[in-house]
UniProtKB/TrEMBL annotation:
Domain MmgE/PrpD C-terminal per the UniProt entry, residue ranges: 286-471
PANTHER family: 2-METHYLCITRATE DEHYDRATASE, 2-METHYLCITRATE DEHYDRATASE-RELATED
Protein name, per record: MmgE/PrpD family protein
MmgE/PrpD N-terminal domain: residues covered: 20-263
Family: Belongs to the PrpD family.
Organism annotation: Brevibacterium salitolerans
Entries under InterPro entries matching the protein: MmgE/PrpD_sf, MmgE/PrpD_sf_1, MmgE/PrpD_sf_2, MmgE_PrpD, MmgE_PrpD_C, MmgE_PrpD_N
SUPFAM superfamilies xref list: 2-methylcitrate dehydratase PrpD
Length: 498
C-alpha cells in the first residue's frame, strides 16, 4: 500500500491530474490485477448477505416505494429488481436505487469502521446493476466489487467525514464509480471524471442519521449508488467534472472538511497490488447499528443472569466516543428514549437495544422493533435507567489500526437496588472475525435462509444460492439472473409523479 498525502491547493498552484486523489483512485480502479481467492470468497459471501437483508425488507414501505419508482423506468436489457420477475427489468441506475434501498433498509449488512463509518456492501447494488444491464460475466463482476470495497475502505481509513457532519455516503459515490470503472475496463481518464462527479453530487449532511431518523437513512446510500451509475455514464460520453474535487481551493477538503490547512493520508494499493480491503470488513448478526452488535451479544449474556429486571437501579455502558455520541445518551436525542420513535431511530438507540436484548436474551429484525415491544411498560422503565459514558480507552481501541486491538463494544456496570453490582465487557461481536463465532460461508447461507423464510420459495432460494456461490464462473446471462422473485408481491397503491 502507498500512503498518499492529500491537501488543499490554490488554483494558481495548478495541481497536476496525476497528483490528485481522484486520479490515484482511478489508477487503482483501472489496474487489471488478479483477484485473491480469499477476496473472491468474501465477495460471494457479501452478495449473499445483501440478498438476505433485501429479502427480509422486500415488503417494507421504503423498498416497496423505491421498487415502484424503478418500475416506471423499464429497459431492455436493463437489470432486475429484488422481488420482481427476473424478466421485468429496469434502467440500471433505477435498479441500483431500488435494490440499494432494500439492502440498506434493515441496517443489517456489512460494516467497516475507521476514521469514518461505512457499509461497503452498498457498493454491490450499483456495480451489479451495471453488470446485469451490460451482460458482463461473473469474473469481471467480482473484480468490480473488489474495487468498490477497496476504495471505500481506503477512504474510510484516511478521511473523517462525520466530524464535519457530512454523511458517510460521500465515500460511497466515488467507490461505486471506481468499481463500475473496473467492471467495464474503462480508462483512467474516464474513471477519474466519474469519481469526481460522484463525489460532487453525494456530499450531504448527517441529519439523515440524527434526531427523528426517517426512511431516508436507507435511501441515502441507494441515491449515492444511483449517482455513481449516472456519473460513469456521463464520463463515458466524454463529459468532465469539478476538478480538483478533493484538493481544489473551493473543493471538498477546503470547505466541507477540515479546511485549507488540513492534511489527510489515504492508503491505496500500489500498481499491481491485489485489492484485499474487503477482508478488513465485517457483517452483522443482528439488525442494528454496528456499534450495537457486541453490546447485543453482551446484553443477551447478562440478561440470562438476572432474575428480576425491576430490581435494577441503573445501567451504565462505558464505551467509545462514537457509540456514546451517535447511538448513546451523548447524542442528546430525546427521540432515542421515546417508545413511539421510528424503527430507524430505535436501531440507533443503544439504550433501547440493550434493554430489549437483556430482557429477551435474543434479537430479531422485526419483533425486537415492533411498536408493542417498544411500548411495554417494564421495558420502558428499564430502558430509561440506561445511560452511556465515553471511556477514553474504548475510544482509543475503536480508532486503533491494530486489528487485534480494535474494539466496538464496551464495559457494562449494572447497579441493583440492594447495592450489588454486575460488571462485564465485550470488545467485538461474536460474529466479528476476532469474535467467539466468526461468520463463515455457512453462516451467510443460514442468514439468507432465515431471512428469506416465508418470503422466497425454497426452490428460488436454492436457485439464487447456486448462482451466487459460483459467481466467478457465471456467464453474462447468468449474472442477469442473480436476483430473486417473490411470489404475490403486491403494489402499495401509492402515487407520485412517475
Amino acid at each position: 500500500m502507498i500512503d498518499h498525502e492529500v491537501r488543499t491547493y490554490k488554483s494558481s498552484e495548478n495541481l497536476a491530474r496525476e497528483d490528485q486523489l481522484a486520479w490515484k483512485i482511478a489508477e487503482v480502479a483501472a489496474d487489471d490485477v488478479a483477484v485473491d481467492p480469499a477476496v473472491e470468497d468474501m465477495v460471494i459471501n457479501r452478495v449473499i448477505d445483501n440478498a438476505s437483508v433485501a429479502a427480509a425488507s422486500v415488503r417494507r414501505s421504503a423498498p416497496t416505494h423505491a421498487r415502484e419508482q424503478a418500475q416506471t423506468h423499464p429497459m431492455k436489457p436493463g437489470a432486475p429488481v429484488f422481488g420482481l420477475s427476473l424478466d421485468e427489468t429496469v434502467s440500471p441506475e433505477w435498479a441500483a436505487w431500488a435494490n440499494g434501498v432494500a439492502v440498506r433498509e434493515l441496517d443489517f449488512h456489512d460494516t467497516f469502521l475507521a476514521k469514518e463509518y461505512s457499509h461497503p456492501g452498498d457498493n454491490i447494488p450499483p456495480i451489479l446493476a451495471v453488470a446485469q444491464h451490460k451482460g458482463i460475466a461473473g469474473a469481471d463482476l467480482v473484480r468490480g466489487i473488489a474495487t468498490g470495497y477497496e476504495i471505500q475502505v481506503d477512504l474510510v481509513k484516511g478521511i473523517c467525514l462525520h466530524e464535519h457532519k457530512i454523511d458517510h455516503v460521500a465515500h460511497l459515490g466515488p467507490s461505486a464509480a471506481a468499481g463500475i470503472g473496473t467492471l467495464l475496463h474503462l480508462p483512467t481518464e474516464v474513471i477519474f471524471q466519474a469519481v469526481q462527479q460522484a463525489l460532487h453530487v453525494t456530499t450531504a449532511t448527517r441529519q439523515s442519521r440524527k434526531g427523528e431518523i426517517s426512511s431516508w437513512k436507507a435511501h441515502a446510500p441507494a441515491f449515492a449508488g444511483k449517482m455513481a451509475v449516472e456519473s460513469v455514464d456521463r464520463a463515458m460520453r466524454g463529459e468532465g467534472a469539478p476538478n480538483p474535487i478533493y484538493e481544489g481551493e473551493d473543493g471538498v477538503i477546503a470547505w466541507l472538511l477540515s479546511g485549507p490547512e488540513a492534511r489527510y493520508t489515504v492508503p491505496l494499493p500500489a500498481k499491481g497490488e491485489v485489492k484485499r480491503a474487503i477482508l478488513d470488513t465485517y457483517t452483522k448478526e443482528h439488525s442494528a447499528e454496528y456499534q450495537a452488535q457486541a453490546l447485543i451479544d453482551l446484553a443477551r449474556k447478562i440478561g440470562a443472569q438476572i432474575e428480576d429486571f425491576s430490581k435494577i437501579r441503573k445501567v451504565t455502558i462505558h464505551t467509545s466516543h462514537h457509540t456514546h455520541n451517535v447511538i448513546g445518551t451523548g447524542a442528546n436525542d430525546p427521540q432515542k428514549m421515546d417508545p413511539k420513535a421510528s424503527r430507524e431511530t430505535l436501531d440507533h438507540s443503544i439504550m433501547y437495544i440493550f434493554a430489549v436484548a437483556m430482557e429477551d436474551q435474543a434479537w430479531h429484525h422485526e419483533r425486537s422493533y415492533a411498536p408493542e415491544r417498544a411500548g411495554r411498560p417494564e421495558t420502558v422503565e428499564l430502558w430509561h435507567k440506561i445511560e452511556t459514558r465515553e471511556d477514553p480507552e474504548w475510544t482509543r481501541r475503536y480508532h486503533s489500526t491494530d486489528p487485534d486491538e480494535m474494539a466496538f463494544g464496551g464495559r457494562v456496570e449494572i447497579e441493583f437496588e440492594d447495592g450489588s453490582t454486575l460488571v462485564d465487557e465485550l470488545a467485538v461481536a461474536d460474529a466479528h472475525p476476532n469474535g467467539a463465532r466468526p461468520f463463515a460461508r455457512e453462516n451467510y447461507i443460514e442468514k439468507f435462509r432465515t431471512l428469506a423464510e416465508g418470503i422466497i420459495t425454497e426452490a428460488e432460494q436454492n436457485r439464487f444460492l447456486d448462482l451466487a456461490q459460483n459467481l466467478s464462473s457465471l456467464s453474462g446471462e447468468e449474472v442477469r439472473r442473480l436476483s430473486f422473485t417473490v411470489e404475490g408481491l403486491a403494489h402499495s397503491g401509492s402515487k407520485g409523479i412517475f
